[in-house]
Amino acid sequence: MKRLQACLEIAERGEVRERSRQICLRIAALLRQLGDDEGAAGYLQRQESWGNGSPSPNDEARRSHVLGLIAMSKGDLDGARRSLSISVEMATVAGDRSLLLRCHADLAEIDWRHGDESARQVVIERLKAVLSSQGADVSLRNERAALMYELGAALIVSGASSDSTDILLTGLQTADSDYWKMRISNAMASAHHYLGDIDGELQWLDEAWAHAERSRSDFFKARILSNRGGMLYYLGRFAEAADQNRLSAAWARRVGNTFEFIAGCVGVGICSIHLANYEHACAAASEIAASARVLKDPHYTAKALEIEGLAYYFLGLHDAAQRCVRDGLASLRNRGHIEVRPRLDWLMARILRSKGEVDESRALLLEAERRLLKTRDMEDLWGVQIELNLIEAGLGNPEAAIVGINKILRESEQKKFLVVAVPAALAIAEILDDQRIDREDLGNTIAVGLERAERSGMRELAWRLSYRMGALAWKAGEDREGQARCTHAIRILREIASTLTDDHRKAYLAAAHVASALQQMGAP
Q: What is the pTM of this model?
């Protein structure tokens, strides 16, 4: 870098414009790879190199391409499209096929990542057409790998993760550079995440990090960190997952990448919900919403509202939670996003069931299940199916519901999805208690669920499991066991309440399920 800067100084002093512009391009590319977008932009806007004379089509194409990438990382999508479109025009004039294909790939990423469902389908078909028109030109291996990455990523976001893996593997075999191997490995991790393959996801994340180190792609490490946080989340290691996501957000803030900053905050917010840190969740939702407003991104607006709605739901503020869901769904109108919409429907269904509106709740859950059976997002699919089984139990079919939930519990255990297994154990305990069913064979299942909840820090589920175990013990005539379990549940409840603001604490303790449990446990 120092040698290049010295060369630039000599070229600018000698007014060798063409050479100084080429050196600026090399320095900017290196700085961006190191995560310094501001520094890179500075070299592409230096008056001494770019202010006088007319850059060649090739230099202008390369300059506009990097400026487009910088604008993308800042969330300036309109600016990114303008710069990339100029780059396409100049690359065509210059006859630079390599840069032309890279620009097409970058424009495709804007559309699949931030467009609606129809825009993603257009991108998928366009990328397939571009790839089929390109021969196996060995000089364009990385460019073809970039197009395969974009196609695979677009398929993942569209819910076709199983279709993406072959394309991504071909791209990995095609790529020469560690940079594209890093991007493709990270996309493979995402595909395995949605396919429920935790071991495969971890393997590909490790692979992506190794390529990031070799290519010195510091700017991309925030995304790998947030994806690693997502993997830890599914394993039920919520505190560690939250730390990874905080680190990701901090890294993204340092390099000025708004999208990755939001992704890190989303991870912090969801982990905070599971840890019953509802104030932290609300704070994360505010960060996400503020950044989403700057980006004008409806997906992340909806994600912020989902996290805020979940916090309000668990605090017992169901009307406020319902408003969040409605606003979130309104922001997604006609977009058909594969992740957020079913989660919002699922949350709305839980709210409606708590209000006794069972038919409406069931209809929403069935629609969410239909979508999730296509996308195969297993956490959400199993969560929706557990909720459907709880409704089934309330309608007079508790034994069938227990069988269905127990099946989900065992399958989630096989895939190491602790985030599903613990709620499944709680659902079984609730059915046994509410329906006054004696099933000694399920006692260990519930006890294991409590142990897992406590080990992972899932305080909300831990107190509910302990309370249900106490209620079941009392019904079985085991008064000492029942008292011990309920005393434990009260302690965890008070621990959660102590972290809340005064208004939230009052709302939480007055929530129907909390107040009822406290009354039955004889808490003062």
A: 0.74
Give the pLDDT score at 136.
Answer: 62
What pLDDT digit, counting tens, does each position of 325-370 carry?
999 999 887 665 457 889 999 999 999 999 999 999 999 999 999 9
Task: Please give the full DSSP string across 116-144, using - where no structure is assigned.
Answer: -HHHHHHHHHHHHHHHHHS---GGGHHHH
pLDDT digit string, tens, across residues 227-243: 899 888 888 899 999 99
Look at residues 478, 461, 468 and name the one whose alpha carbon lies nearest to residue 430: 468
Q: Looking at residue 43, what is its pLDDT? A: 79
In contact, 256 and 73? CB cutoff 8 Å:
yes
pLDDT of residue 280 exceeding 90, the answer is yes
Instruction: In whole angstroms, give the CA distance from residue 220 to residue 34.
Output: 9
Q: How far, in whole angstroms, is CA 310 from its chain's centroid?
A: 16
CA dist., res. 260 & res. 403, Å (int): 41
3-state DSSP of 229-262 = HHHHHHCCCHHHHHHHHHHHHHHHHHHCCHHHHH
What residues contact 192, with CB distance under 8 A and at least 6 apart?
A: 161, 165, 198, 200, 201, 204
291 with 262: CB under 8 angstroms? yes
Nearest to 80 by CA among 90, 88, 68: 68
Burial bucket for residue 177 (CB in 10 Å: 0-12, 13-18, 19+) = middle
The rounded distance, in Å, linking the Cα atoms of 243 and 12 is 46
Query: CB within 8 A of 96, min separation 6: which ones?
Result: 58, 61
Q: What is the mean pLDDT of the chain?
A: 88
- Token look-up 């302690």 returns 491
**By percentage, how much of the chain surpasses pLDDT 70?**
93
Calculate ∠ Cα 229-231-237, nearest 5°: 75
Q: How far apart are the first and last CA of the chain?
A: 68
Judge contact between 311 and 278, C-beta under 8 A: yes
CA 365 from chain centre, in angstroms, equals 21
What value does the mean pLDDT take over residues 63-76?
A: 84
Torsion of CA 265, 270, 273, 277, to 10 degrees: -30
Query: Using an 8 Å Cβ cutoff, are 172 and 185 in contact?
Result: yes
| Alpha-carbon 130 to chain mean position | 29
CA-based max dimension of the chain: 94
